[in-house]
Give the backbone structure.
Amino acid sequence: MYGVETLVHPDYQGYGIGGVLMERRFECARQLNLRGIVGGSLIKDYHKVADRFTPDAYVAELVAGRLFDSNLSKQIKKGFKPLNTIPNYTEYPGSLNYAIAIVWDNPAYRAPEPKIIPFPDAESLRAGGSSIAL
Ligand SMILES: CC(C)(COP(=O)(O)OP(=O)(O)OC[C@H]1O[C@@H](n2cnc3c(N)ncnc32)[C@H](O)[C@@H]1OP(=O)(O)O)[C@@H](O)C(=O)NCCC(=O)NCCS
């Protein structure tokens, strides 16, 4: 599943609403037996420390809990893992246009059984018909 924008009104951020929305997405992925969820996360507060950290180093600080980003840190806390930096993701001054690809792996995902298609026998091939039951 690709996760498009999740927004909580600024007056209500930090009260668990965004977390519940993320958990509902996890539940949806579990019910549909999806491998997981991917998204692009804006590092909204990166501009504050961009003179000291590259985007990759910034993310390492967030993962270690030494810095807090008002977007990505919350997603990390809910179980998303940062994968790689995406430059020029969108025009957003706070993140200097960077985003981070994030992924949540569904621990309940079960790969479907492979479907075995029987090879037609010579007689049905000669007859030109298809006797393959799919
Ligand atoms: C990102 C966003 C959706 C999160 O919604 P929210 O309601 O603020 O998030 P929550 O209050 O549920 O917090 C999520 C987690 O971060 C933690 N958290 C929130 N504020 C925190 C803070 N100041 N310090 C440390 N942890 C914090 C919460 O405890 C929660 O983790 P938990 O469930 O383990 O306790 C919201 O901040 C938002 O709309 N941001 C602007 C739009 C945006 O950037 N959307 C994402 C686009 S990719």
